[in-house]
Amino acid sequence: MIRIAASARRDLDEGYDFYESQEIGLGDYFLSSVKADIESLRVTGGVHRIAHADYHRLLCKTFPFAVYYTKSDQEITIFAVIDCRRDPAWVRGHLGQAGRTSGSSQ
Predict the structure, then answer these.
(1) In this structure, which topology does domain 2-105 adopt according to CATH?
(2) In what helix (H) or strand (E) does residue 4 lie, and over which residues does it extend?
(3) Helix (H), strand (E) counts: the chain
(4) Residue 62: count of CB within 10 angstroms of its CB
(5) Would you put residue 46 in left (φ > 0), alpha (ψ -120 to 50) or beta?
(6) Tens digits of per-residue pLDDT, 93-102?
């Protein structure tokens, strides 16, 4: 099962808004591309390197974003979807915040 925390949903909304403001329809393409990358975790979850604390990092194929997730026996939880161009200190802070507010849904 893949769960997406509220923090990651907010990240996806922000990414959508940014790309949609660049060109109509690009936000939808962003979401479908990143969601396909997330779905690939059903097969590859856990193989990505641990980038911070216990978060694995999946680099998205089409957009310069990374998906930060944890994996247990039966569940993958997405905590953040972050633009790779962000300052690394900001990323660490965001991941720390995401871990504290991890309300999630499928």
Answers:
(1) YaeB-like fold (3.30.2310)
(2) strand 2-5
(3) 4, 6
(4) 12
(5) left
(6) 888 887 655 5
Going by their DSSP bridges, the two strands 65-71 and 76-83 should be labelled as antiparallel
Q: Please name the residues in contact with 55: beta carbons below 8 A apart, sequence gap of 6 or more.
A: 68, 69, 70, 79, 80, 95
Domain positions in the chain: 2-105
Helical axes 88-100 vs 6-22, angle rounded to 10°:
130
Q: What span, in angstroms and rounded, lies between the C-alpha atoms of 97 and 72?
A: 20
- The SS3 of residue 79 is strand
Contact indicator for 4, 78 with CB cutoff of 8 Å: yes
Q: How far is CA 81 from CA 13, 61, 103, in A?
A: 10, 13, 15
**Predicted confidence (pLDDT) per residue in 46-93, tens digit:** 899 998 888 999 999 999 999 999 999 889 999 999 999 999 899 888
